[in-house]
Amino acid sequence: MKKTKSNLDELQELKLLKIEHNGCWLAFWGLLAVILTQIAIGNDSKQDLSGEWIVFMCLALYLTVGCIRNGIWDRKLKPNFKNNIMASSIAAVVMGILWFIISYRNYHKLVGSIATGVIMFFSIEILCFLALTLTSKIYKKRLKKLEDDSEDE
């Protein structure tokens, strides 16, 4: 396929990239919000969530692989223990509250719902922390390789 010349100047290209960037993150967080809302209100069958889940996971995988492949972690955060714990805690709190709501909605048992929320909190905390730690190790290894390759040239 033949590439055509862009009709945009450099400033317009940068603005377009920013628009696309914001649109991508709006889609990512919007899909997550829709999935969590559907789960919380009880509209959580596989048929109802499968489309959003597939798009969300494809977008998450694409962003993760693309960033790591290019040696990018985040604009502001570093891949360290403190940030991994903070991000894991935020995810764990959100999921703990969500599972508390789901359990209470389904069974109307306060103590059981609190226990469900606490169990989910700790489970998500551990799993997210492990995933972030593993991903940050892969990122650091890839960044070192990219830096070594650029020094060899």
UniProtKB/TrEMBL annotation:
User: What keywords were assigned to this record?
Assistant: Membrane, Transmembrane, Transmembrane helix
* Name of one Pfam family that matches: DUF6773
Q: Which InterPro entries match?
A: DUF6773
Lineage: superkingdom: Bacteria
Its transmembrane ranges are: 21-41, 53-72, 84-102, 114-135
- Protein's name in the database: Uncharacterized protein
The lineage is: Bacteria, Bacillati, Bacillota, Clostridia, Lachnospirales
